[in-house]
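User: Please fill in residues for this 384-position structure.
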């Protein structure tokens, strides 16, 4: 980094930090990073026509029952779906939103080979992407940590990162953000994609024990410190758009389901949410454990267009959540593995920004494998 740019950045940060009375360590954090977490990777940008398309795969569930005919054929079909959708949609960014594998069916000696299988179509399409991990990705023979490490080693266009040490709690290292710029040479991003680790599943090894299924409270302070740095270097949070991904729906989403209106909130609604369907519902004493995360996300990240989750394979709807007024969307069960029902189909959620203006709404819909689309909604201030 050129000295002059570094010094300019430090002065700006010092000004912001001194004015707001922030502790001194912020100066060093800003100095050392300049806030580009991907200095060696291609910058991700909007298209020249001002649009940006994200395609979300979810719940691929590779690796079921490798000992019989049923599981391996599911994976053949899931790979075919990925290839077809990537070729048709030509997204600018891909998200795989958790439960990449059915970890409880995997073997110690080769479990991460499934990650190689999932990465193959993405490597072939040369599309930038990143992943969240789900409850089935933490099991006796595999973990979120191992999956991310493997992904980073086999997929050159993976933007998945680990949270700093101490952030994320047991089994939850996958908390990070990805900056999206309007143009390659821009200094300041117009959109931040946030990714959170809702953990769940089981610890590794023969005496595997269950892991809490909510975003750990340490992530709340991390969101605050990251956004403080962003604001110091890039200016106020209002200058950027945001979109968040987390495998298990936040706790409050479950209470929204009875109020769905199929005209306003279209899409399959075939999974009645119960115990285990949303974060922090392991038992009654665990209710609301994702509250620090939910509060910090909504307080610090402005222009948050939507929070997107998978986990409940029979749901596709979006709704405006009433405690924070933020829009929530389910993505679409993509994998032939994992539970399902013949009528549900397999596909993806597409999300399209039509302008780099951070306040501009976006359009989203479900695309099925055969190309059929449904549940199209505009996510903006008029939505609900
Ligand atoms: C892993 O090994 C098991 C047992 O040998 C085998 O059945 C399975 O197909 C292998 N899985 C992968 C992904 O290579
Ligand atoms: C895989 O896809 C083919 C073609 O669409 C279908 O006929 C078959 O039933 C699918 N297999 C599984 C295991 O879902
Ligand atoms: C884990 O891998 C080992 C070694 O392949 C295997 O014996 C075991 O059945 C696997 N599954 C679990 C849940 O431990
Ligand atoms: C697992 O638990 C058993 C029974 O308590 C114990 O004997 C064994 O040492 C434990 N194994 C590991 C790897 O911790
Ligand atoms: C459902 O939403 C539509 C479109 O916004 C609206 O016209 C209709 O009144 C709503 N129905 C109910 C029962 O709220």
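Assistant: Residues filled in for all 384 positions:
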């Amino acid at each position: 980094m050129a000295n002059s740019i570094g010094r300019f950045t430090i002065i700006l940060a010092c000004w912001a930090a001194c004015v707001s009375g922030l502790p001194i360590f912020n100066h060093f954090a800003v100095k050392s990073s300049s806030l580009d977490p991907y200095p060696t990777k291609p910058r991700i940008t909007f298209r020249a026509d001002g649009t940006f398309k994200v395609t979300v795969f979810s719940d691929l569930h590779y690796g079921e029952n490798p000992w019989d005919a049923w599981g391996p054929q599911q994976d053949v079909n899931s790979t075919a779906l990925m290839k077809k959708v990537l070729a048709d949609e030509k997204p600018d960014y891909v998200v795989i939103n958790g439960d990449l594998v059915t970890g409880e069916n995997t073997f110690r000696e080769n479990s991460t080979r499934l990650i190689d299988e999932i990465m193959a179509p993405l490597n072939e399409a040369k599309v930038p992407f990143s992943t969240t991990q789900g409850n089935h990705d933490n099991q006796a023979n595999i973990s979120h940590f191992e999956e991310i490490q493997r992904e980073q080693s086999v997929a050159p266009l993976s933007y998945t990162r680990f949270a700093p040490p101490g952030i994320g709690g047991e089994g939850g290292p996958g908390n990070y953000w990805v900056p999206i710029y309007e143009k390659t040479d821009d200094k300041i991003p117009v959109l931040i994609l946030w990714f959170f680790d809702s953990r769940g599943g089981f610890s590794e090894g023969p005496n595997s024990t269950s892991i809490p299924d909510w975003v750990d409270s340490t992530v709340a302070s991390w969101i605050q410190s990251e956004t403080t740095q962003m604001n110091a270097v890039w200016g106020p949070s209002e200058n950027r758009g945001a979109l968040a991904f987390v495998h298990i729906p936040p706790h409050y989403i479950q209470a929204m389901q009875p109020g769905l209106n199929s005209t306003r909130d279209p899409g399959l609604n075939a999974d009645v949410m119960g115990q285990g369907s949303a974060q922090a519902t392991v038992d009654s004493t665990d209710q609301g454990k994702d509250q620090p995360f939910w509060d910090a996300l909504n307080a610090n990240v402005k222009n948050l267009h939507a929070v997107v989750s998978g986990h409940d394979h029979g749901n596709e709807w979006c709704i405006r959540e009433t405690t924070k007024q933020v829009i929530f969307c389910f993505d679409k069960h993509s994998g032939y593995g994992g539970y399902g029902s013949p009528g549900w189909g397999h596909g993806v959620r597409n999300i399209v920004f039509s302008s780099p203006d951070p306040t501009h709404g976006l359009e989203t819909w479900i695309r099925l494998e055969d190309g059929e689309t449904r549940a199209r909604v505009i996510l903006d201030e008029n939505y609900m």
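For context: The pocket of 2-acetamido-2-deoxy-beta-D-glucopyranose (ligand 1) is lined by residues 66-67, 107, 110, 113-114 (CB under 6 Å).
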